[in-house]
Amino acid sequence: MNASATTHTLVVEQDKVGQRVDLFIGEALGLSRAKLKKLFDAGAVKVDGRAAKKGLLVAAGQRISVVVPEERREVVPEPDAPLAVLREDDTLVFLDKPAGTPSHPLQPGETGTVANALVARHPECAGASEDEREGGLCHRLDIETSGVMVAARTREAWTAVREAFGGRSVDKHYWALVTGPLADEGEIDLPLRHHPRHPDRVEPAVEGGEGAREAHSEFRVLAREGEYSLVEVRISTGVLHQVRAHLAAVGAPIVGDTLYEGREEPGLGRFFLHARALGLTHPVTKKPVRVESPLPPELRAVLERHALTVTG
């Protein structure tokens, strides 16, 4: 174990009884699944003094110790990695993220992310975000989601944009192809929480409760053909998998999104979700800025295959 490490001691309260120990630790310390796996594999997690396995269910009063090694967090620049810039100025950079590319590294030395390509072109972005791994990115998109992202080139700008996201003053629009019955337009006001048995997904929390996060989406159908509908979704909150979980919850899962029971689409190696536009107040000029990302070719091909026509 790394000599430079922090030992955390957690005590299981009554309301956590029966939770998996890895989920308990992840919630308490804000650790990723990949990080948790490494800690369990290294024997860095002990319950009442004994090495624990991640599937263990915790009991009231148990003392859990977690030794977390410190890691270098800076992003490795990748000058040869592709980077599509939609708009930039002295303060902000708007990027067009392709599907299949993570937003930023989770592990030291990890490459192949948007942040790696970004800091290679704009080294100042590395110091803009509080977490160096983010490379100045002000938010994240799921790996298989394409579309517009925004990064900051100064700490002041990053802080302002992050506060805008947190204050629900960033206008976020997504395009999704779904199947199933769906009204022409509507709102989905449904809290979400991590699924207790499936940490990779979220589930509706109709009555709120522990772990539930407020989530609000508005949608309108742009085009229909048979069972398929192209939908624009505007979200004011930013819960994990919000668009995916909300559409699935109303019986219209996203095409290709098998995690949420979406219909498979032959030849499409991703789900059909695209971050179409971002609108915000510029942190320096204070003027409104809106940036759009064109629909990528593989998604346009799916629309053509299903005889769906949309402009933009």
Automatic annotation (TrEMBL):
The protein's Enzyme Commission number: 5.4.99.-
**CDD domains named in the record:** PseudoU_synth_RluA_like (cd02869), S4 (cd00165)
Gene Ontology molecular functions: RNA binding; rRNA pseudouridine synthase activity
Q: Which domain of life is it from?
A: Bacteria
Q: What top-tier enzyme class does this entry carry? A: isomerase
Keyword check for Ubl conjugation, yes or no: no
Catalysed reactions listed for this entry? a uridine in RNA = a pseudouridine in RNA
PROSITE patterns hit by this protein: PSI_RLU (PS01129), S4 (PS50889)
All residue ranges annotated as the RNA-binding S4 domain in the record? 19-80
Q: Name one GO biological process term.
A: enzyme-directed rRNA pseudouridine synthesis
Which keywords annotate this record? Isomerase, RNA-binding
Which InterPro entries does the annotation name? PsdUridine_synth_cat_dom_sf, PsdUridine_synth_RluA-like_CS, PsdUridine_synth_RluC/D, PsdUridine_synth_RsuA/RluA, RluA_PseudoU_synthase, S4_RNA-bd, S4_RNA-bd_sf
**Catalytic positions?**
142
Entry annotated with the keyword RNA-binding: yes
**What Gene3D superfamilies would the database entry show?**
Pseudouridine synthase, RNA-binding S4 domain
Instruction: Please name the NCBIfam families in this protein's record.
Output: rluA_subfam
What role does it play? Responsible for synthesis of pseudouridine from uracil.
Q: Which family does it belong to?
A: Belongs to the pseudouridine synthase RluA family.
List the protein's name: Pseudouridine synthase
Originating organism: Melittangium boletus DSM 14713
